[in-house]
Amino acid sequence: ADRLSAKQEKTLAMIKPDALQSFGSILAAVEAAGFTVGRLRMCHLTLADAEGFYAVHAGRPFFGPLTAFMSSGRIVAMELLAPGAIRKWRQLLGPTNTATARQEAPNSLRARFGSDNTRNACHGSDATETAAQEAAFFFKQPVGRCCTTTNTSLAL
Ligand code: RTP
Ligand code: MG
After folding, report:
1. Atom of ligand 1 nearest to the CA of 124
2. Which positions bind ATP (predicted)?
3. Does 97 contact ligand 1 (Cβ within 6 A)?
4. Does residue 26 contact residue 113 with C-beta atoms inside 8 Å?
5. Residue 143: CATH number of its domain
6. Does residue 29 sit in helix, strand or coil?
7. How many domains does the chain have?
8. How far apart (Å, rounded) are the C-alpha atoms in residues 17 and 72?
9. How far apart are CA 78 and CA 43, in angstroms?
């Protein structure tokens, strides 16, 4: 009943190129934490796609390395549904910097699967508005070289 209740929140999660090989383990953690997986898409972002997704960071010193990394291999984008999904998923991610994550949250996904401050395994939306924008980015327009698109019956 809770899975379909109005208390559900939706976040946009991404498995970044460095962690694609750990998709199975990450999906296991998603399930164990009680999220419902909504729409899911695997694709290889172009550099322009990555620049669009991270447009808010344009001009930051890490923008070039970040967008190059994010277009270097396939990613998985997925909607995760749960009560408080945005905070809950970022909690599971741990701190942005993998080294910090290993110190402060050793069981977090970034501690387990990240490599450094840029190659940090996964993404999570930071607010309701960005979650909606990011879901639209992946599921309401053609993006990159799409490999797989699936829809579950529970997608909102
Ligand atoms: P995300 O958006 O990926 O969930 O991560 P976040 O909120 O924890 O981090 P944010 O500040 O939004 O940065 C987005 C991504 O840019 C890369 N980054 N590199 N100093 C650096 O080298 C640096 N800082 C950020 C990371 O990949 C980060 O997740
Ligand atoms: Mg962010």
Report:
1. 4
2. 16, 62, 90, 96, 110, 120
3. no
4. yes
5. 3.30.70.141
6. helix
7. 1
8. 7
9. 11
What integer pLDDT is reported at residue 154 of this predicted model?
39
Helix, strand, coil shares of the chain, percent, nearest 5, are: 45, 25, 30
Name the nearest CA neighbour of 101 among 123, 116, 85: 116
* 156 in a structural domain: no
Question: Which domain does 127 fall in, by range?
Answer: 2-150
**What amino acid positions are annotated as catalytic residues?**
123
In angstroms, the CA 97 to CA 62 distance is 13
Asked if residue 120 has its Cβ within 6 Å of ligand 1, the reply is: yes
Contact 121, 19 (CB under 8 A): yes
* DSSP-assigned states of every residue in 50-84: HHHHTGGGTTSTTHHHHHHHHTSSEEEEEEEEEET
| Confidence at residue 140, expressed as pLDDT on a 0 to 100 scale | 83
Residues at the binding site for ATP are: 16, 62, 90, 96, 110, 120
CB atoms within 10 A of CB 90: 19
Q: Could you say which residues of the chain have pLDDT below 70?
A: 1-6, 141-156
Say what the pTM is: 0.90
